[in-house]
Amino acid sequence: MSLKQKVHDFVHHTGRYPNKKLGQNFLIDANILPKIVSEADIEPVDLVIEIGAGLGFLTSEIVGVARKTVAIEIDSFLCHTLYQQFSSIPDFTLIEDDVLQLNLSRLFLGYDRKNVKIIGNLPYYASTPIIWKLLKYNQHIGCCVLMFQTEVARRIVASPGNKDYGALSIGIDYYAKAEIVLHLSPNQFYPVPKVSSSLVKLTLRPQPKVLVKDEVLFFQLIRSAFQFRRKMLRNAIEHGCINLDMEKMNQVFATLKIDSNRRGETLYISEFAEIANTVTETTN
After folding, report:
1. Tens digits of per-residue pLDDT, 101-155?
2. What are the tens digits of pLDDT across the range 230-282?
3. Which fold does the domain 215-283 belong to in CATH?
4. Cα(284)–Cα(282) distance, rounded to whole angstroms?
C-alpha cells in the first residue's frame, strides 16, 4: 500500500484530516524516506530525535537503524497512533509536546555529540524558531537533517552577495555547516502544500565558526545590517536596533579597512565578527 493510500485510510477510518494549524503535510514518497536516513548517517550507536513524527512513516525507517529513537509529536491524536505502532519497541520513546517548550538536554545524556542526530519534517510556520533552538545545543548535537520550505532553505545556505543572504544565513553559518541535499515537489506531500520543499543537512560545529567576544553585540550588528538591507552599512547600523557612537564606528571601519558604504549583504561572517570584536575592545 502506498503512503498516500495509508494517509487516506487513516482519514477514512478516523475521520481526522491533517491539521492545517499544525502545518501537517505528510511526506508520501516512500523513496525519499531512506534517503533522509542516509543523509543523517545513522549508525547503530546513535540517538535519533525525530521532530514531528506524524503517522510514523519516517519513524519506521529510523527504528530499524538507530540505537534509540525519540519521537516528538505535538498532536495528541497522532501520538495515540504512534503509540500503537511503536510502543512494543524497547528503544523507542514517544514525547507528546511542543519541541519549542521542551528541555532537550536531558535527552542527550550518555551520548557523544557525534552520535546525536535530529531529523524532522518541520511545520513550516515554526521552522525558524525550531532551528534556532537546535543550534543552541551545538555542544550536544552532531547533525540535523530537516525539511524546510525551499525559500527558507535557500536563505539558510546563501553566501554573501546572494539576494537570499541575510541574518539567518550568518546565524546558521555561525553554528553549523549547511547544505541542501534534496529538493522535493509539492506532490510528494499530502495534503499538497502551495510551496516546494528542500531537505537541508546541518553539520553542527562544536565551536562557532568565528571567535566573538560579545555574541549579543555580534547578532545585534547583523540584525541591524539586514533590517535596512538596502542602506549602506554605516547608515543601517545607525538606524538599527543597537545604540552605538557613530564616531567610534567610523574609527572601527577605518581600523579594519572596511568600507562603511558597503551593504551588509556583501559582508562575510568573519567581517561582522571583526567589527563586533573591535567595538567591544574600544568600549571596554
Report:
1. 999 999 999 999 999 999 999 999 999 999 999 999 999 999 999 999 999 999 9
2. 889 999 988 877 888 888 899 999 999 999 999 999 999 999 999 999 999 98
3. Helicase, Ruva Protein; domain 3 (1.10.8)
4. 6
Tell how far CA 166 is from the center of its chain: 15
Span 3-204: which CATH code? 3.40.50.150
Q: Do 39 and 62 meet the contact criterion of CB atoms below 8 Å apart?
A: no
> Would you mind telling me the total number of residues written for the chain in this entry?
284
Instruction: Report pTM.
Output: 0.94
Spatial CA neighbour of 217 closest among 240, 187, 193: 240
User: In the chain, what are the domain boundaries?
Assistant: 3-204, 215-283
Task: Give the angle 124-125-128 at the CA atoms, nearest 5°.
Answer: 80
**CA 229 to CA 16: how far, in whole Å?**
44
Closest among 1, 190, 10 to 84, alpha carbons compared = 10
